[in-house]
Amino acid sequence: SPDMTINFQDDYNHKPVEQQAQTFWQDNKSFKVEVDPTRQKFYCLSMFPYPSGRLHMGHVRNYTIGDVISRFQRMRGKNVLQPMGFDAFGLPAENAALKHKLPPANWTYDNIKYMRMQLQQLGYAYDWDRELATCHPDYYRWEQWFFCRLFEKGLVYKKEAEVNWDPVDQTVLANEQVIDGRGWRSGALVERRKIPQWFIKITAYADELLRDLDKLDGWPERVRVMQQNWIGRSEGLEFSFKVVGSDELLTVYTTRPDTLMGVTYCAVAAQHPLALEAAKSNPALAAFIKKQDNIKLAEAEMATLEKEGMDTGLKAIHPITGEQVPIWTANFVLMSYGSGAVMSVPAHDQRDYEFAKKYGLAIKQVISPDHISKDCNIEKEAFTERGILINSGDYNGLDFDGAFDQLLTFFENNRTGSKQVNFRLRDWGVSRQRYWGAPIPIINCAACGAVPVPDKDLPVILPTDVEIDGATSPIKKMRSFIDCACPQCGGKAERETDTFDTFMESSWYYARFASARYEGGMLNKPEVDYWLDVDQYIGGVEHAILHLLYSRFFHKLMRDLGLVKSDEPFKRLLTQGMVLKDGAKMSKSLGNTVDPEGMIEQYGADTVRLYMMFTSPPDQSLEWSDSGVEGAYRFLRRLWKLIGGFTASNLTVDVASLNDAQKEVRQKTHATIKKVTDDYDRRQVFNTAIAAVMELYNEVGKFTAANNAQDGGQNQAIVQEALEAMVLLLAPIVPHMCHVLWSHLGKQGALIDAGWPSWDEGALVATKVSIAAQVNGKLRSVLELPPDSDKAAIERAAFADETVQKFIAGVAVKKVIVVPGRLINIVVG
RNA sequence: GCCCGGGUGGCGAAACUGGUAGACGCAAGGGACUUAAAAUCCCUCGACCCUAAAGGUCGUACCGGUUCGAUUCCGGUCCCGGGCACCA
Predict the structure, then answer these.
(1) A221 touches strand B (CB under 7 A)
(2) CA nearest to nucleotide B15 C1': residue
(3) How far is the CA of A77 from the C1' of B35 (A)?
(4) Cα–Cα dist A790/A695, whole Å
(5) Residue A583 pLDDT exceeds 90
(6) Closest to A31 (Cα-Cα) out of A167, A106, A130, A166
(7) Whole-angstrom Cα distance, residue A576 to residue A685?
(8) What integer best gives the mean pLDDT of chain A?
(9) Whether A270 contacts A331, CB under 8 Å
(10) Selection from A87, A47, A199, A41 nearest residue A436 by Cα
């Protein structure tokens, strides 16, 4: 066994250092927290991991960022909650179960055990007493309970919806399991199939989800923009075309009613009732429609398809001109969006344009550019900007708004159309035909229909003693699970065998952490009211839309049930970038992974944490480099040597007595405290915080090389102050070493309880500043001036400068721009 | 295809509000120490031209614009990455 005693004269050995610190934190339950209304709380949460087996570098990065922020806030005196758990339901467990011939539950719990140990090795300041796993009935029972409340409120409903169907394996496939249109195991061409599924009415909250984005000023702008576009609110006109020889109406929605007179055809989805009707007497059309059944469900798949269509033979009657236009079916019209039909204006919509060109359909220009919009060339492409109406009869000369108003009036008067607000957002389908998920708490009764499981019968426990066959979920044929009595009529009934989308579990875990062990309900109000909202949420940018939108939605649902009191769950959001190696995302399939465990063994958790934080800012991608890790390790060794070799004292700095060299070190110390504090707090960039501490290290190194820092005088006091600052400032990132060095610096009490250092504004004043002297915007000289030099003084110094004079000699000075403290630019010519 | 990011030395990056481009680190080269190596310490390090010393020109993906001044703002182009509703 390794020698676990620490000798500060020896080289840095991470093992005893990290063991000593971790033992201290464990023995003192340093990170266990309770409600304390007398203290300001800070809830810092990192997105919990899927227990895939071992931590990967992406996890390490994510959780280190969260830990850095948590420890920083704790040092600032906040009552910091930082919990951890596992998002434990999901598809990979079923795949692993099939491969290893063991139940998903066993695999999952084994992985959790291992990953918990790995997280502990990294020294994260978690309150482990709150750990949860979403696959545990104590957790998902409340999700089932919550779903029943939504059922009562009419916020859930069942409807037929399409899935990817593997006709050979007789199973529903996830998008991920469809490769090039075929099932990943069977290789069979996938089919679309409609099955009844449960939906939650997220569209009922679309307006609020959109509006409240404005409240999220602690979120990255790009995430808010992505969510806004995803929700996709638009205002338009909904109206209907009559169809020749049919009672059916063709209802469409358009955001460009001003182009109505340019309609030259209509397009409907393959599954549109009109297309299906026409196909009955048209085998070629039937074949075309059938072919659309083999397209994977994913939107990207449909959007990149070659645009194809076929004339249905039906004609629509233009509501204004009475003109007849053909109705086509087209593969780019989605049955799931709007009414599954569109009016087509090829002159003013690029997609319609390309389709019209391909199939020889008419193109009629009805908008011409106004003085703001660009030129148009209808021979080459559609003109999609707004402009002035032409070729539009009574509407000629109107602009977009005028045309919208007048056409709306026309349709309203005829009661054939109205203004509509549409959302791109669709209701959330939560049914999965998979095993490893939370059972949907519904009982299907022939007499009573779908009946929620009564609260007293919750949870509906997922049987875990199962065998996975790679196709059907084992509970779908498990009579002991299925057979039950109807809670309403008592008759024979069947339990729902679908499980919830795993996004359900991850949509409220942040709230459960506030009272993770509470058995009296989903959330314990006093605790939740104290800890929520999450002050800082950290996770991958890949979750920018779905997870974060569903969580926001759940929060509002919980609010409306009186469970939480705020409108939004996450005050501040940090989306961290990916970890790359050789320019690509680390992944097993590419074989470019680096196992954190080996790195921790070799260099220690502190080095890995330091490297991850130093290499890039948190929101950018991080390129892995082995020698970069070496560099981080070397810095820690140098730091150990400098501080370990320093003899601590309790001398205090006597500001009035300092010489210039001492003043400069002190200035650097305090400037570093100020900069690093700002980097942690406002900017959340840790690479520059570390760089600043390294600069301070270099400065102290130079100072000690030139002066005796152990002299018992002001040199020693100045260095002691700098070293204390370095240890405190690095503590959130390198907590183990700093914990140990803190006591070596003669400090009483644990570092985690030491306050965050403050800076002395008086110490920040520099003895001189460098002013750039430019001529015509080009740097010609650098002026060393007193820090308080005003414009006139800077100008005098610049014109007195030899090099500057060289460049302004013989030419007229046209203008002089002075930015005090920064630069002077002399414009000549 | 649509939405959102990103592109700066050999490499990771910095420049925070339009104001000295390349802080900090890695790699490389040179030197010190050493019997030697490792470790450590010191020096050099964007490209090109030029010099005895100096100095100069260019340079932040590409093209154009605004400005005394643009990595930063605007318009366009290319490339790379994330998301697209059943991967999590």
Answers:
(1) yes
(2) A688
(3) 57
(4) 29
(5) no
(6) A130
(7) 11
(8) 94
(9) yes
(10) A87
Report the amino acid identity of residue A512.
R
Contact A243, A249 (CB under 8 A): yes
Query: Distance (Å, rounded) from C-alpha A275 to C-alpha A36?
Result: 65
Q: Which nucleotide is nearest to A627 (CA to C1')?
A: B26
List the one residue out of A586, A636, A585 whose CA is nearest residue A610: A636
For residue A381, name the pLDDT band (cuts at 50, 70, 90). confident
What are the backbone angles phi and psi of residue A587, rounded to the nearest 5°? -155, 155
pLDDT tens digit string along A157-198? 999 999 999 999 999 999 999 999 999 999 999 999 999 999
Residues with Cβ < 8 Å from A372, sequence gap 6 or more? none
Task: Quote the distance between the C-alpha of residue A812 and its chain's center.
Answer: 56
Over the stretch A220-236, which tens digit does the pLDDT of each residue have?
A: 999 999 999 999 999 99
DSSP one-letter code for A13 = -
A522, two tokens: 């989903």
| 3-state secondary structure labels for all residues of A310-371 | EEEEEEEECCCCCCEEEEEEECCCCCCCCCCEEEECCCCCHHHHHHHHHHCCCCCCCEECCC
Per-residue pLDDT tens digits for A593-603: 888 999 999 99
Q: How far is CA A221 from the centre of its chain?
A: 12
User: Rounded to a whole number, what is the distance in angstroms from the first to the last CA of chain A?
Assistant: 77
Q: For A60 and B78, how far is CA from C1' in angstroms?
A: 35
State the DSSP string of A104-157.
HHHHHHHHHHHHHHHHHHTT----GGG--BTTSHHHHHHHHHHHHHHHHTT-EE
Statement: the CB of A561 is under 7 Å from strand B: no
CB atoms within 10 A of CB A527: 18
Check: CB of residue A715 under 8 Å from CB of residue A707: yes
Contact A639, A694 (CB under 8 A): no
Predicted-complex ipTM score: 0.96
Q: Integer distance in angstroms from CA A775 to C1' B26?
A: 36
Would you call the peptide bond into A459 cis, given omega within 30 degrees of 0 as the criterion?
A: yes
* Tokens 């190696």 found at: A581
**Pairs from A633-637 (Cβ < 8 Å, separation ≥ 24):** A633/A603, A633/A604, A633/A607, A635/A610, A635/A694, A635/A697, A636/A12, A636/A14, A636/A606, A636/A607, A636/A610, A636/A734, A636/A737, A637/A11, A637/A12
Tokens of A786: 């007193």
**HSE-up of A529 (CA within 13 Å, CB side)?**
7
pTM for this prediction? 0.96
Sign of CA pseudo-dihedral A666, A670, A671, A673: positive
The pair of structure tokens assigned to A446 is: 């022939």
Find the residue closest to B21 using CA and C1' atoms: A779
